[in-house]
Amino acid sequence: MKIPVIRKILETNEEKSNQLREKFDKNKTLVLNLISSPGAGKTTLLERTLSSLKSDFKMGVIEGDIQTTADAQRIAKTGVSTVQINTEGACHLDSNMIFAATEKMNITDLDILYIENVGNLVCPAEFKVGEDFKIALLSIPEGDDKPEKYPLLFSEAKVLLLNKIDLLPYLDFDVEKVKKVVKSLNNDIEIFPVSAKTGEGFDAWLEWIKNEVKKKKQN
Amino acid sequence: MHEMSIAQSLMEIVKQEMEKNNMNNLLKVKVRAGKINAIVPDALQVCFDILLQDTPWPGAVLEIETVPIKLKCQKCGTIFVPKDEDLFPSLIQSPCPKCGTDFGHEIMSGKELLIEYIEAE
Ligand SMILES: Nc1nc2c(ncn2[C@@H]2O[C@H](COP(=O)(O)OP(=O)(O)OP(=O)(O)O)[C@@H](O)[C@H]2O)c(=O)[nH]1
Ligand SMILES: [Mg+2]
Ligand SMILES: [Zn+2]
Ligand SMILES: [Zn+2]
Q: Domain residues for A190?
């Protein structure tokens, strides 16, 4: 016999994500889920962001990595508390992993929690981890056709950081085209061209974070 | 390889439904996957087959229906399927057939990832 089901395949993760979100909302913690290809600059961006905001906010970082602890060690150097998740091969973080990580850190007094997802443009976009917003990073050397090829992330992200703009003079990358394509997928997205290396463009990004923290506190 | 995670979640739901409905033998599972999810049907098949080997019904069939992308024009509200939707650039640049706007369309379908029904006895 045929049994109608009509359930979302990833619903268990979504339920867990909602529970996490409730927990974060109660503490008024802004949670940002950073997603990009491997090497686009998530850790470098975090290092600079943490150093710039350290005196303003209490922050924490969850580092997702397939195998090493190298990124967590880099973050630890900024003095911000970090928990490392080793996904042991899995190509994305899910809500169960974040649950486990939040038990290892004091999250009750955080203003901002950053989650560095596993370097991968595809499935991290499908697995919610209790975040307020997904922050997509696309770096200039990856090429300007990525949003067309991987539309899900770009249609779900609240912010797109175009990183490594210090390399623009050396590469063929059409910033205006990317802006147009991404806006057509997602009209509400904010796009900030930045260089995590030189700090260029960071003011707008930091301003955005400060503003969102303020909004979260008012809710 | 996000297909393996998806296959695992799918299997979890299938097991729950089998038990809930007091079924003994699973024959078929039907899934609807929106095109935007970028699921490779063959890869999902293989992953699901691997998981089936550890169940009492290793011969069950998985049918995956790919759901096309449907857009709603932000300007005039016309709902349309972008022409060559295998190519994402055309999804993005696809002009509304009525008013020609090629920007900021709302995605009406193509994002879903659902189990639709199971066949069992
Ligand atoms: N030129 C330039 N290089 C950068 C910039 N940001 C990061 N890099 C370099 O890019 C490389 C990768 O940076 P990471 O920050 O480790 O990238 P990631 O996204 O965290 O990488 P995974 O965690 O492995 O996915 C490093 O060599 C960085 O120094 C930038 O703005 N400009
Ligand atoms: Mg990193
Ligand atoms: Zn994955
Ligand atoms: Zn129109």
A: 2-218
Question: Do A123 and B37 touch, CB atoms closer than 8 A?
Answer: no
In angstroms, rounded to a whole number, what is the distance separating the alpha carbons of residues A116 and A114?
Answer: 6
State in Å: Cα A156 to ligand 1 middle.
23
Report which bound ligand comes closest to the CA of B76. 4
Q: Is residue B22 included in any domain, yes or no?
A: yes
Indicate yes or no: CB of B88 within 8 angstroms of CB of A149. Answer: yes
> A40 C-alpha to center of ligand 1: Å?
5
Domain tally, chain B: 1
> Under a CB-based contact definition with an 8 Å cutoff, are residues B22 and B16 in contact?
no
B40 belongs to a structural domain: yes
CATH of the domain at A184: 3.40.50.300
How much is the pTM?
0.85
Per-residue pLDDT tens digits for B18-40: 999 999 999 999 999 988 777 88
